[in-house]
Structures are given as C-alpha cells and as structure tokens.
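The methods section describes the discrete structure representation at length, but only in general terms. The central task, working out the structure tokens from the amino acid sequence alone, is never made concrete. Nothing conveys this as quickly as seeing an actual entry. For illustration, here is how one protein appears when written out as sequence plus structure tokens:
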Amino acid sequence: MNILQATQAYERWSARQVPFVPADLQLKHRLMAQSAFSFFRATCYRWMQVWPEVCADLATAPVLRAVADLHVENFGTWRDSDGRLIWGINDFDEACVFPYTSDLVRLVVSAKLAGRAEHLAVKLDEACEAILTGYREGLRAGGRPFVLSEQHTWLREIATNSLRDPVKFWAKMEALPMVQGTVSHDVTNAIEQVMPEANLSYGFRRRRSGLGSLGRPRFVALAEWRGGKVAREAKRLVASAGLWAQGQKGGGTLLYQSMLEQAVRCRDPFVRMVGYWLLRRLSPYCSRIELTALPRKRDEGKLLYAMGWETANVHLASAPTIPAVQRDLAARKSTWLRKAAKAMTKATLADWNDWAEHHAG
C-alpha cells in the first residue's frame, strides 16, 4: 500500500465515524505537499502503518499509553487550576497503546524534518542525545511537570515570547467565519459545560487549525464576559490511527481523558472530553507553540531535553510498565535511536516525495 492508497483507506475509515469538512480536507492535502515537516505532522496514520515494519527491532519493546502523534510542535502552554503557566504536550488525539520507542523515534524524526524546514538547527546525534537523556532522567525522577514560575526561567522566556498579543489574538478569533445553520445539541451541551457562566450568550465560528485533525469538525464559541472576550473550542475526535493501522474498526475507547488524568501533569481545568468532543479554552496563554514563533536565540538541545522529559511525564501514566521500559532502555545499544530515526526519516521523505509529485500543480 503506497501513501496515496493509505491516505484514501484511512480517510474512508475516519469518515465512517464523522464526515469530513470537504474544504478543510482539501486544504490538508495541499499543505501535506508543501514540506516534509507538514506532511509528517499530517500523517500519523502512515507512521503507525509503516513504523512496525521499518523498525521491527523496536516493535517488541514494552507497550504503554503512547502519544502516538508526538512531534516538536505538539507542545504548548496553559493555565492550571491555580493560575500558573504550564508547558507541556498539548495534544493526545491519537493516543493509543503502542511501544514506548515509537514516541521517542517520532520526536527525533520531527526535529530532523523541522531542521530541513529551517525551524530548528540541531544535528541528529544531538537531538537523540538530548531527547533520550531527558526521557531517562524524567522516568528516573518519577516525572515532574514544567511549571513556568520560579523554575524553568529559560523555558518561560521561550514560551512567553511566542504568546500571541491579546489584541491580535482576539481580532483573529473575531475574524473566524460564523457557522451557517444550526450546531448540533451535543456540541452546544458540551460547550456550555466549560463556559465561565451559565446562560452566557455566544456565537459559533468555524476554525481551521493543526494538520493531523484538519478536516474534522471544529467549532469555537466566542462570548463577551465581564469586560472581555472568552473562547471555548469543541473539536471532534475519532479513534486513534493506531487502531486503523492494526486493522480494527472505528470506535472504541478514546484515551485522551485518561492521559490527562493519569500523566504527571498540572492540568488545564478547561480541557476535557464530553462524548467524542474535546473541549478546551482558547486564549493567548493557552495555545500550541509554533516553532516559527520561537525566539532566534535559544538552546535547542535544552528544549529537546525538556521535550524528552515531558514525554516521560506522559508515559508515567502507565506506571506498572515503567520498570520494563527502563530495563529495555538499558539493554539497547547506544545507537538504537539514531538508527531508527534515520530509517524513519528516509521512509517519510520517500512518502512525501510521492505525495508531492502526485499533487504538483
């Protein structure tokens, strides 16, 4: 099955769970052709399909609740219940039970492809060392969230540099197109659970964001509340692409909520699952951090180390498996991550070239 066939098969599988927004899906296909990094972010399903073959020696590693769609732009900031600014992984759409090794390889490959797009300037060996060291030390310490207050000053400066100007952010929210027609009751009922006040008047807008989930319904409820604007998003989730790659039917249990609850984490109190809808607060301080928004002067090795540690924070949600993970890590040769990352980078670039050639012009 080539990349074109795989994409068609996956999209048919997904559409049986929820219809796509046609214009958004077409945009996704165009963005996939623009760069290998964009293609990589949009095609977790292909990774889940080919990784066990390309990295067969890693496919027998201990399994746990993995992020599955991990990459260097799957990190952002939010406010916890005490109002503190937190940094960490902010997307578990594709979470599934999978070998822990896949998340680490995927994170390194994303750093490599981001370098090709001139978003990062780090060598493969350095990326492997930083991510793996952060991961090992995070597991050994039992995890620790990244609270950007007294500690992690360097990370706070990186994160706050990318936080969007409130005036521009809310102008962008206001510019989102209004929803034409009615919104289903399951969406309105879900949104009202995370609004700051009951019976608040709000309007629904459509939003395009991300790449992996682009094409699925996504709504933003925008309201005025006590002197300022507030926004809540509802994003429709489908079963993990990992289930598709394993030949399973759609549906089943989504792991998003359990990842939030059981990882070593300072949670955003506004992020939750209601049915198949993911709800979250949108604000300048609660957003994914794009690499293009980071300051030019930054210690990228230190940043990748933190990403490795945060991956450990999430994997610790599968606490009973961690001793087996640590034993497996200790038994592997020092070059395993580099070797796997090179192989998966090669496989990804081959798929991207085929996709880009097919969509040229």
In short: The two ends are 24 Å apart (CA to CA). The mean pLDDT is 91.
